[in-house]
Amino acid sequence: MTLTLLTDEELFALIRNNADEQAFRTLFKRYDKRLYAYCLRALGGHDDAQDMFQLIAMTVFDKRASFTDGSVAAWMFTIARNFCLKALRNRKHTAEVNDDTMPPEEDRSYTGDDFLLRDALRQAIASLPEEFREPLEMKYFDDLGYEEIAETLGITVSLAKVRVFRAKKLLQTRLNPILNELR
């Protein structure tokens, strides 16, 4: 049986029922980059994100019996979110958003205007209220669907859609002056 052809739920059934480590590696490989990126954005540094990522992986495997129904991806992101929020509450200071908190750029050949726009977008996203920023990042950075966002945040699907929509509107309002200046 080729594990990569199985759905998340089929893989997780193997993990839950048989403690199948190969199925776990296959499932986690599907989400490792997005979970790490989520931790990196939430915690602001590679070392903290790596530590948190390892903790999440161990917890998903150790708590496999507690998952009963729903989206496996949403469950893993809920674990990530809860651990990251707990880590942030335990910090005595808050970290500033810097280049390490954003995913690495694929193409370094951008122009000065591209840099200004990218920097403005980064700052605009960081300045959004958490209730809008978090679902927006989950949608566009973590590639989660609205159902998974809703399950992760403990809100309805329609509220997840509304929050992403409002976040995009806020970003548009904040970025319009810059976009007009670049035209």
Walk me through what this model shows.
With 183 residues, this protein is mostly helical. The protein has two domains: 7-96, Rna Polymerase Sigma Factor, Chain: A (Orthogonal Bundle); 110-183, Orthogonal Bundle (Arc Repressor Mutant, subunit A), CATH 1.10.10.10. 72% of the residues lie in helices and 0% in strands. It has helices at residues 8-18, 21-43, 46-62, 72-90, 112-127, 130-140, 146-153, 157-182. The longest helix has 26 residues, at 157-182. It is elongated and about 60 Å long. The termini are far apart.
Strand-helix topology:
Blueprint: H1 8-18, H2 21-43, H3 46-62, H4 72-90, H5 112-127, H6 130-140, H7 146-153, H8 157-182
